[in-house]
Design a protein that fits this description.
The chain is an alpha/beta fold and 203 residues long. Helices cover 44% and strands 22% of the residues. The protein has a domain of 128 residues: Rossmann fold, CATH 3.40.50. The longest helix is centred in the first third of the chain and has 15 residues.
């Protein structure tokens, strides 16, 4: 195992399905399908989601019921197990502990840094607390300040900061638009490709 490198991975769209898309389909509210692939401004996106949840009387309990039925993407756990066998790995996500915890169990309890929802006693989601500003980029820079080299991979606009700041960055199952806008970053569709690319850097 290389002590120098840490691989930083996005969660949704990379290791598990997009939670908000799954929930949108489960409750029949298409407006909730919008993700960070569509809206780069995370505050704007979350305030939009919270307003729609309120409008439809939906809260944390309903979202957690959907999450209970979500499985990691096919091959994701095996990919993560192999990656963690030769490189320290952290999942850095803009999701929330209340969403991510059951999914981490299914992935073998990897380390995850994410945010927290503010929830009222009746289960209504009233707001959220970001762990830190620009959490993915800030975390990568903090790891680098401690002497680590970072490798980063993700699929959305909010992953670009950590990808750009890292020693190596890879797009994974991203949109055609992001691929076209950032041709300098290799774009992979299969876990085996991403694993091989990381191995070449670490070993």
């Amino acid at each position: 195992m290389s002590e120098m490198f840490i691989t930083c991975l996005d969660l949704e769209g990379v290791l598990v399905p997009e939670i908000w898309i799954a929930f949108s389909e489960a409750v029949g509210v298409p407006e909730l399908k919008k993700t960070t692939r569509d809206e780069p401004d995370y505050d704007k996106l979350m305030n939009y989601r919270i307003a729609i949840l309120k409008e439809h009387g939906l809260g944390l309990k309903e979202i957690q019921q959907t999450i209970a039925g979500i499985e990691p993407l096919e091959g994701a756990k095996a990919f993560l197990d192999e990656l963690r066998s030769f490189c320290q790995t952290i999942i850095i996500s803009d999701t929330f502990t209340q969403f991510a915890s059951p999914l981490m169990v299914k992935l073998g309890l990897p380390t995850i840094f994410c945010n927290t929802l503010e929830v009222s006693d009746n289960g209504e989601i009233t707001g959220y607390r970001m762990r830190c500003e620009k959490s993915k980029l800030t975390t990568v820079k903090a790891l680098q300040s401690m002497g680590f080299e970072t490798i980063a991979s993700g699929d959305s606009f909010n992953d670009l900061g950590m990808i750009q700041a890292s020693r190596a960055g890879f797009l994974f199952r991203t949109t055609d638009q992001i691929k076209a806008d950032y041709p300098q970053y290799p774009a992979f569709e299969e876990y085996s490709q991403l694993l091989d690319a990381i191995k070449q850097i670490v070993k």
